[in-house]
Amino acid sequence: MTERIVLAYSGGLDTSVAIGWIGEATGAEVIAVAVDVGQGGESLETIRQRALGCGAVEAYVADASDEFANEYCVPTLKANALYQGHYPLVSAISRPVIVKHLVKAAREFGATTVAHGCTGKGNDQVRFEVGIQTLGPDLKCIAPVRDLALTRDKAIAFAEEKGLPIETTKKNPYSIDQNVWGRAVETGYLEDIWNAPTKDIYDYTATPEFPPAPDEVTISFEAGVPVAIDGVKVTPLQAIKELNRRAGAQGVGRIDVVEDRLVGIKSREIYEAPGAMALITAHKHLEDITIEREQARFKATVGQRWAELVYDGQWFSPLKRSLDAFIEDTQRYVSGDIRMVLHGGQAIVNGRRSETSLYDFDLATYDTGDTFDQSMARGFIELWGMSAKVASGRDIRVAGK
Ligand code: ARG
């Protein structure tokens, strides 16, 4: 029987050419796999037809947008995950869900190999292949750009020669990856890290310099999950989309960073994640009133480690699973409402309420009704400083010798 390969298919030039390219190089039949993670643009049916038109023997398409929102974006939100303090893991969290569908398609169509369109310099090749190794250890991996010398120029020549149903003229100098959690833009003019991004780079956000009137929004959470916006019930996918629209209109969530790739390269990336950044801000502020201090401090470091693991392609790893369990436990009381104003590139919280809040007005107030016994503070401070005081005494003694 002819060998079969499932290919992660975006519908763009490179993966369209990859169908025939892989076929010629390996003699295998190619099954195109397109997964909707809320990237917008063309319909799955259009993409399916193009894959078949480019020589795929089968096309597997899946609308995974709710799955992506519920099982990938929501955990990222619960972790308040920002890689290197900035990047909400837009591309990093989409790879594992695509991997799931690639493995599913491989089983359905009896494929032995999984192919993807990544280069040999990025993180995404790692995320795909580590994911495949974990979920389908018997499957092999191949990357035509990296392993079969499929360059951009060769791709254009191949598409023209074979008359593939794909445009080869539309020249976009940037490499773009997008889904409902956000959008990532790199290469071209941006590789000079002194160059400011030009306006044409942005798509999810309007320029924050000339914002429309301020937009006040109330986001309700239940156990860390967004469940309503301005009192209207929403699914996580709807919450992200609605905030992409409203926060995006105010230019919220533009990020310009040089980040550390797993492969050891520093690279410049522009992100836009209006919904993600508005949600993370709101969620964090709700945690501030509902999570106990020590748990909150520890969770911040867990969230950072979680972000690194996910960035580094370890979504399906045991440590990630253990950290998920910890994070999930912290979310038990993260329920309530956050009111925030979206304006001029910022999402600023100005009100919070929760039935499971730890904020105690009677303890916090300086007005009458204060229930805090201030006389307790003296002794507490004496003991709290004791250890450092003893050490300091020793230092003075030693220095004086
Ligand atoms: N640097 C980001 C990451 O590794 C995004 C990569 C997405 N690719 C792109 N063409 N911008 O997660």
From TrEMBL:
ATP binds at A8, Y9, S10, G11, G12, L13, D14, T15, S16, G117. It is found in: Cytoplasm. L-citrulline binds at Y87, N123, R127, S175, E259, Y271. It catalyses: L-citrulline + L-aspartate + ATP = 2-(N(omega)-L-arginino)succinate + AMP + diphosphate + H(+). L-aspartate binds at T119, N123, D124. InterPro entries: Arginosuc_syn_C, Arginosuc_syn_N, Arginosuc_synth, Arginosuc_synth_CS, Arginosuc_synth_type_1_subfam, AS_cat/multimer_dom_body, Rossmann-like_a/b/a_fold. Belongs to the argininosuccinate synthase family. Type 1 subfamily. HAMAP family: Arg_succ_synth_type1. Homotetramer. This is Argininosuccinate synthase. It comes from Arthrobacter humicola. The lineage of its organism: Bacteria, Bacillati, Actinomycetota, Actinomycetes, Micrococcales.
